[in-house]
Amino acid sequence: MAKEKDGKKKSDKTAPLKTAKEKKEDKATKRKDKENESRNTTS
């Protein structure tokens, strides 16, 4: 249990870094989706 709590604390500390990475990935995914969408509408 103590280990779990420690792990949670650790993840909380690294959360901002992960969010920044996720934001970047989300942006890339959104761009991909937009590209696919325009490709679908064109064809």
Choose one word for the global shape: rod-shaped
Provide a count of the helices: 1
% residues in beta strands? under 5%
How helix-rich are the residues, as a percent range? over 70%
Could you characterize the architecture of this molecule?
With 43 residues, the chain is an all-alpha fold. Helices cover 95% and strands 0% of the residues. The chain contains one helix and no strands. The longest helix is centred in the middle third of the chain and has 41 residues, at 2-42. The N and C termini lie far apart (55 Å).
List the helices and strands and how they pair.
Layout: H1 2-42
Key words describing this protein structure:
43 residues; rod-shaped; single chain; mainly alpha
Give a short overview.
95% of the residues lie in helices and 0% in strands. By secondary structure, it is mainly alpha-helical.
